[in-house]
Automatic annotation (TrEMBL):
This is Ribosome maturation protein SBDS. It comes from Drosophila hydei (Fruit fly). Associates with the 60S ribosomal subunit. Keywords: Cytoplasm, Nucleus, Ribosome biogenesis. One of its GO terms (cellular component) is nucleus. Residues 15-102 form the Ribosome maturation protein SDO1/SBDS N-terminal domain. The lineage of its organism: Eukaryota, Metazoa, Ecdysozoa, Arthropoda, Hexapoda.
Length: 252
């Protein structure tokens, strides 16, 4: 485990992940907890204090050398230390060993592959691609994960690259789910709705509930399995249409 001592106040920093940003001709670094940098970039961690070991900005974390106020002001303007740390977190490069880097890249690639598989379809079959096909196509296209970008940004880039190598388009499915109230009722409805992007319509036909949903393609099998299991095969799924998602739409 890496240990860093700052010469001024002798604060011992352990389990350190360093994020570095070069700006205005200077190098700036922050000391973060390992495994938290990517969580911050993916928005799964929103508490900056859970990411930063200290709000101090360094020129060299390992040597405990802190950045001077005039250097910070020249590079970042009137921002306070926390805002500067956030910019470095967002734009900086995570410093890791080759082994750690490969582990992070593999984890990121897996997340990107699953995101693409969940959000896109083969326009010829109107069905999602298996994750294995997405992964192979990305490797064949020499796609590289950018560690200073989050999963959403990398996923958008992956989709653009894949369009030059295979028929693929982003879309959402419009789905009609029907089941009797006694075969799951409120509990099944709640579970199904949580998996959808939106509920377009809801109606009861005697004792049968009909839900019209917009879902990401990758959720189709999940909902299908859920309804079949909870209704013992009596529920019904109907694919009504596929709605193309334009690039300005929200991805997640």
């Amino acid at each position: 485990m890496s240990k860093i001592f700052t010469p001024t106040n002798q604060i011992r920093l352990t389990n350190v992940a360093i994020v570095r940003l070069k700006k205005a001709g200077k190098r700036f670094e922050i000391a973060c907890y390992k495994n938290k940098v990517l969580s911050w970039r993916n928005n799964s961690e929103k508490d900056i204090d859970e990411v930063l070991q200290t709000h101090t900005i360094f020129t060299n974390v390992s040597k405990g050398q802190t950045a001077k106020k005039e250097e910070l002001q020249k590079a970042f303007g009137a921002k306070d230390d926390t805002e500067i740390c956030k910019e470095i977190l967002s734009k900086g490069e995570l410093q890791v060993s080759e082994k750690e880097r490969q582990s992070v890249l593999d984890s990121q690639l897996n997340s990107i592959v699953n995101s693409v598989a969940a959000l896109c379809v083969n326009p010829e079959t109107r069905r999602p691609y298996p994750a294995t096909i997405i992964e192979k196509s990305l490797k064949d296209a020499h796609f590289n994960v950018k560690m200073n970008k989050n999963t959403k940004q990398n996923t958008l880039e992956a989709i653009k690259i894949l369009r030059d190598h295979m028929p693929i388009e982003r879309s959402r499915m419009k789905l009609r789910v029907s089941f009797a109230g006694k075969e799951g009722g409120g509990k099944l409805k709640e579970s199904v709705v949580k998996l959808a992007n939106a509920v377009e319509h809801e109606e009861w036909d005697e004792s049968t509930l009909h839900l019209t949903l917009l879902i990401d393609p990758g959720q189709y099998r999940v909902i299908d399995e859920l309804v079949r299991n909870e209704t013992k095969g009596k529920g019904l799924l109907e694919l009504l249409e596929l709605k193309e998602v334009v690039e300005s739409d929200e991805l997640f």
